[in-house]
């Protein structure tokens, strides 16, 4: 059971809820939301409040009381904003969106009725998740996804399984419509899941690169403490220390100076780790940040009630952080492919070409390099910066967009492709080490031994055969914690 208090939420907890963990609202969060609701109500009596007493977008100057009395506008807003298109997102991604939105509401800046948050928690726990499709958000709030969620809570759209009856609401006040949907919870949730996946993948990929380094008798001087002391960032230094610890005692180097794919390992993995950490820091803030528009602040107890209309919902920082991580991963692909290539080269391993059974022309692992190159093509395409995009919408009232939603969707695709690339390298490095007669117990590094032992669970048959099963097993090993 994950407690949602609106103040702290670990990224791992978002992933846990995505995987099926239940949630509960902390009592203090309910009190905070109720105070925010009272403050918003008091402010709306004093001046116009966007979405509460006015229309939205280009209709922001329209008074709801003059238009229809305001009684039905909330339902109309939810229904009109719920349109999306494309492929349905997986249940895990949708659950991540729901828990992020619940955490943001618990922060107390929306002015929403706490009963809505209670119903959202019930929706998560019942696993009656809404169907959300891929096209809708443009990085300025996931209005469509959350409006569709509201319609599911109202019983107007069927959920994807779960206990439908337990989460149905009987109505939705106008004052609670915009406060519920004005959030980038889907975009943030997607980014969190990809961040957690990449945290494991990049660590395992670094360990696999150490296996490749050993299989090709790399020169450890490039990873040595003097080199680590001279680098430009602490992340690169940390990577150098970690890699040096893994390859300790691996034998004599074959060359005075290695190819870049071995010599620059600290820069490659250090830069990726640095960008991953920066993204994680931002996401840790966003999952509890009440970037509500309008943002309700002040307190009914001292009469300081007010709201602030703003643009914090535009996820420009998130788009740029994801772009930076994508670029770091994309730039590293050249070295991944080169290590795979050199592992198949007798000059670097002392083995048969393509790590085949013999030198009679067998193809061995030849085609795995093609698979890795195809996955790299996907990664490099995804690395094209999304944050340069923009669009003008709603009769010119909204003249910019971050498209962070596109960036986070691409990041998930990159993570899946990277798992394939690293898995190909694992198959190649493990076969090379096995053919060289190396054993996990030779090495003192627990991290290296764990990855080597994982690689040695792959089939030992080196004859030409169908390698799909080997690669699928290797992908699972790359995705797992060791």
TrEMBL record:
GO MF assignments: histidine ammonia-lyase activity
Entry keyword annotation includes Chloroplast: no
One Pfam entry name: Lyase_aromatic
Record flagged with keyword Lyase: yes
EC assignment: 4.3.1.3
Keywords: Lyase
Alphabetized PANTHER family for the sequence: HISTIDINE AMMONIA-LYASE (PTHR10362)
Protein name, as recorded: Histidine ammonia-lyase
Organism listed in the record: Arthrobacter bambusae
Lineage, highest ranks first: Bacteria, Bacillati, Actinomycetota, Actinomycetes, Micrococcales
